[in-house]
Specification:
This protein is α+β, with helices and mostly antiparallel strands and 281 residues long. 22% of the residues lie in helices and 19% in strands. It is built from seven helices and eleven strands. A hairpin with an 8-residue loop joins strand 1 (16-22) and strand 2 (31-34). The termini are far apart.
Length: 281
């Protein structure tokens, strides 16, 4: 029978990548299939694709209604994400801690100082010691050039930034700016589709990135998504802050120039920022 049509879920619905469906998030009408690409946890049923004894729901969601969860080490629905983040774990063996502070993994009584919540698991690697992931600019350039070749066909360009550009290395991630080839391209999903076809996986969506920043008292609101390459390297993708405004830019009625993201769009019936600043009549 294969993975195209591979059985039924707990609700009796047909599952498999050959089964067309809509997202199970309440009110969402996004077209999906019931294959592994849209399964909560990345696997049919209540298990995750990582076989790590974490239980998730057996429903199917579009990319906008799943986010990476460190407990599951997979993209899960919002409901499972909240539930898993509220679980408590023993720092010693990694087992789940029950309401009596006993580890269900090793059976030990666990003190509060040795308990970590699920929502904090993804923070442990942020500042810890880890292997240098991007050791050189030369090592990153083939990936950037290959990504540019694919993105260009979909209406996007790729620009390199961050530590790899400025220092020649990064022990954390590679920063790339993804920007549209023209003002008519505003659908970020088309860029995400390119990444998925190349085998990349979404590691943390923009909401999760902003939540992490707020916990560190960072007020930055730029649109950043963290992705993992097929060889498990992290790449942070930065998109223009408001692609809707980008598409609405009109030529200035005074100087004829078009507004840009950097200086803001000119008003439809007024001067651009440059004209206002220079006092152009």
């Amino acid at each position: 029978m294969g993975w195209a049509h591979c059985g039924h879920d707990s609700k009796g619905r047909s599952i498999g990548y050959g089964v067309r469906a809509i997202c199970d998030h309440p009110g969402c009408k996004a077209d999906i299939d019931r294959g592994l690409d849209f399964a909560c946890g990345g696997m049919h049923g209540n298990e995750t694709s990582n076989d790590n004894d974490v239980e998730v729901c057996d429903e199917y969601f579009c990319w906008d209604h799943r986010r990476y969860n460190a407990v599951a080490d997979a993209a899960v629905c919002f409901t499972c994400d909240v539930r898993l983040n509220n679980l408590r774990f023993h720092q010693g063996c990694g087992g789940e801690v029950d309401v009596n502070n006993e580890c269900m993994g090793c059976g030990a009584s666990v003190t509060v100082r040795n308990i970590v919540k699920g929502e904090d698991l993804d923070d442990e690697d942020e500042d810890g010691d880890e292997e240098m992931l991007w050791s050189s600019l030369d090592g990153a350039l083939p990936l950037v050039r290959n990504l540019e070749a694919h993105m260009e066909k979909a209406g996007w360009h790729v620009a390199l930034g961050g530590g790899v550009l400025h220092k020649g290395y990064s022990d954390h991630d590679l920063d790339l700016v993804i920007y549209p080839r023209n003002a008519n391209m505003t659908d970020i999903e088309t860029a995400r589709q390119v990444l998925r076809k190349l085998g990349w996986t979404l590691w943390a969506d923009v909401e999760r990135i902003h939540t992490h920043w707020r916990k560190k008292n960072v007020t930055d609101r730029k649109h950043v998504e963290a992705w993992k390459t097929p060889d498990d390297k992290r790449v942070d993708l930065i998109f223009p802050h408001d692609l809707t405004d980008y598409a609405k830019h009109q030529p200035c009625k005074r100087c004829g120039d078009s507004g840009t993201i950097d200086r803001g769009p000119p008003a439809d019936d007024g001067p651009c920022l440059d004209c206002t600043t220079k006092g152009t009549p």
